[in-house]
Every structure is written in C-alpha cells, then in structure tokens.
Amino acid sequence: MATLLKSSSEGLREYDAADNERDLLNEAKNNLERTIFTTLSDIEIAFDNHTTEAELEALSATINKISQWYDEEGHYAPRSAVEEHLTRLQEVVDPYKRRVQAFTELPAALTKLEELLTSKAQAISIVMSANSAHEILTASEFVQALNESLANEGEEKKAGLPIYTHEEVEALRKLISETQTWLTETRSLLATCDHRADPPVRLATVTERMEVLNAKLDYFGHRGENWFTTYKRLFDIKKVLLLEAARKADAVDDTTAGNDTVIEAPQTEEGSSPPEEPETAPEPES
C-alpha cells in the first residue's frame, strides 16, 4: 500500500513538472513569435529613420534566419532552443529599440529639466540667498539674530533668517549653472547629430541629472519650510507677549494716575474772611 501511494505521488509530481514545462515552452514560443512580428514592423517604420542601410540589412538577415528556423523547426524544438533564438534576436534588436526610444523621449526629458531649472531651482535659490548666513552661527548668535528679526506688533520681518550657510548657497548656484550649461550643450548636439547613430546623450543620463537636482531642491525646500513654520510660530508668540506687556503697562499707568489725584479745598472770594465757627455756650455750674 505504501509503495502504491509513493508511486502515485511521484507520478503526480512528474505530471505537474511536465505540465509546467509545457507552459514555459508555450510562453517562450509566444515571446519569440511576438518579437519576430514586432521587429518586422519596426524595420519598416520605426527603424527606418534611425538605422543605416548596412544596419538594416544585417538586422533583416538575422530576423529572416530566425523566422525561417522557427517556421521549420521551432514548433517542435525544445524550450532551450526557442529561448536561445529569442535571446539572439533580442541582442540584435534591443540596441535599435533603445536608440529610437532615446530620440523619441529625449526632447520631452530635456524640457522637463529646463522647467525644473527655470521654476523650482531659481525660486529656491533666491530664497536661500535671502536667508543665508556667511558662516555657521552659534546658538546664542542665532537666538540674537532671530530676536532682531522679530519686529514689534504690526511690523513685518525686516531680515532673513540664517537658515542656509554661504557654502550651501554657492553649491546650489554652481549646480544650477552647470546643469544649465550642460542642457544648452546637449540640445545643440541633439539638434545637429545623425539620427541614424546613437544620440550624443543617453536618456538615463538626463533622468539622473534631473533626479540629483530635484533631490537637492527638495531637501533645501523642506528645510526652509520647517524653519519658516518655526519662525512664524515664534513670531506669533512674541506678538502675544508684546500685547500682554502693553496691556499690563496701560493698567499700571491707570493705577498711577489714580493715586496722583489731589482733592482741592473749596476756594473763597478775594477779600472775604472764612466763616467763623459758632461759639459754644458755657455749661451752667451745678
């Protein structure tokens, strides 16, 4: 009985393995068929403006050879053979696909980088310049600067907060300048390059530059927001304290004025004598 159960279990595992292998083989065949079909379509449309005549001939020869193999042997070939031909075709086709994708998406990517420079980067750079210290302040120096920047009631802040160091301001200004120069040069190269060769810059390079710049801007921007929020809270607290101090001062002035009031004696007319007090009659002796 145990032997029978073991044999049945092994049979089920073999059946599952065979079923799984059949699924993998069908998937590999579908991928190869799809790649052959899309490549033939790309040769006629997408690749035409981004490949040389020699490249197209070599690509066509490869696709025809693999397509012929699949028609003659692929339907009965093992999965390893199908995957081998798929890999060979992808290695030949993928570089041209990346080239077409780069020329298609590079203009939009460069425009996004320019928008980042002209809007977000410039705005944060201006804020940083207006709220920078030429050197790192000590705690006492910062408190003093903060107190000086907190104006009296009804007045606006007249000085920036020492949020950023001079080195940070200069580093961001340099990064923005270098990125702007690189953007201008890249656009010039892209406008004059041969579209039948790889572009002068990879799409990934543009994305990386944008991510680096955006990360810096987010860091400095969030840092400024936190400081401005803290400043606003301190400013509101000081306004309340100033109002309370003014109220107490007014109360003290009112009390002092009340204590200094003098009650004056009634005035008499000039030349008249004050009224005489009535005489008291002596009491009779007993």
From TrEMBL:
Record-annotated membrane-spanning stretches = none
Q: Where is this region: Disordered?
A: 250-286
Cite the Gene3D superfamilies for this sequence: 1.20.1270.10
* Single biological process term from Gene Ontology: endoplasmic reticulum unfolded protein response
Q: Which GO terms describe its cellular component?
A: endoplasmic reticulum chaperone complex
What's in the keyword line of the UniProt record?
A: ATP-binding, Chaperone, Nucleotide-binding
Q: Where is the composition biased (Acidic residues)?
A: 276-286
Family label = Belongs to the heat shock protein 70 family.
Q: Which PANTHER family match?
A: HSC70CB, ISOFORM G-RELATED, HYPOXIA UP-REGULATED PROTEIN 1
Query: What name appears for this protein in its UniProt entry?
Result: Hypoxia up-regulated protein 1
The species is: Hydatigena taeniaeformis (Feline tapeworm)
Phylogenetic classification of the source organism:
Eukaryota, Metazoa, Spiralia, Lophotrochozoa, Platyhelminthes
